[in-house]
Specification:
- Helix content is about 40%, strand content about 15%.
- The chain is built from 12 helices and 11 strands.
- The protein has a 6-stranded mixed β-sheet, covered by helices on one side. A 5-stranded mixed β-sheet has the order 5-6-7-9-8, with no helix packed on it.
- The protein is globular and about 55 Å long.
């Protein structure tokens, strides 16, 4: 856990917050299914304001350019660091019901799930922005309370709406659609998809980011903040560090093209 916390901090400190995203279109050899447009949204981290704006953009795009099948995918890390994690989950719950949105598990959701099973996870979660999530759910966080992790754990269990519990139970570790594989962090190169483990899918960086291997699909991921969306021969990174930069990215995949909202 300590290694991961340091790694997250290092990545965050390197993020260029003064950035713009060019709404460019790139062609790839990978495609969604016929007559299908995919909208994939990167790491949100408690920025309900940015999520609401992005959903308006998606709906506007669909209104202007109707398509037979629209697939909406969120790549995880909905909570922590930002101040409105609860509101983010509220919005995504509605999106699941209204649009059949696919929501993936990020490492921050995995940590929260671990905390609900093991109160001692609180110390590590605090260092990754977990206190902001607890506050958004109205959990008391006095200095005395923070010395009693089991009390905090019980308070969070009581504060979670039933719809949010079901939301977390519905999270997926990956989702395939045509020639695209959507996952929070990445995959371990050379390991068959069904043999991938959750720890890699939500945490991996180095081995995946440095790999030039053909994974047999285009992997679309977040987890590692970058100044602009990155398109490589084998992966697309759309984590533009919303909580730091104020910019949430949505990749749009249709036919052989990739563009960004």
């Amino acid at each position: 856990m300590a290694r991961r916390i340091c790694e997250v901090r290092l990545r965050a400190s390197r993020l260029d917050c003064d950035m713009t995203i060019a709404a460019t279109t790139r062609a790839t050899r990978y495609r969604p299914p016929p007559a299908t447009r995919i909208y994939a949204v990167g790491d949100i981290h408690g920025r309900a304001d940015l999520l609401s704006d992005m959903i308006e953009r998606i709906d506007d795009d669909l209104g202007r350019r109707p398509v037979a099948q629209a697939v909406e995918i969120y790549l995880g890390d909905y909570i922590d660091r930002g101040n409105d994690s609860k509101a983010v989950i509220d919005i995504l719950c509605r999106r699941m019901v209204q649009r059949g949105a696919v929501c993936l598990r990020g490492n921050h959701e995995a940590i929260m799930e671990d905390f609900l099973k093991d109160a001692d996870v609180l110390h590590g979660w605090k260092q990754l922005g977990g206190l902001q999530t607890l506050t958004s759910y109205g959990v008391p966080l006095s200095p005395a309370a923070l010395q009693m992790p089991m009390q905090v754990q019980d308070a969070l269990r009581d504060a979670l709406p039933r719809t949010h519990i079901l939301f977390f139970e519905c999270l997926k570790n990956f989702h395939q659609c045509g020639g695209y594989l959507f996952v929070h962090a990445g995959i371990r190169p050379g390991v068959p998809l069904q043999a991938q483990v959750q720890d890699d899918l939500v945490w991996i960086r180095g081995e995946f980011l440095q790999s030039t291997a053909d994974h047999g699909c285009m992997v679309v991921h977040g987890h590692t903040p970058v100044a602009h969306p990155q398109i490589f021969s084998n992966r697309i990174n759309i984590d533009t560090g919303a909580v730091f930069s104020g910019r949430l990215t949505c990749a749009v995949m249709e036919n052989a093209s990739v563009s960004f909202l």
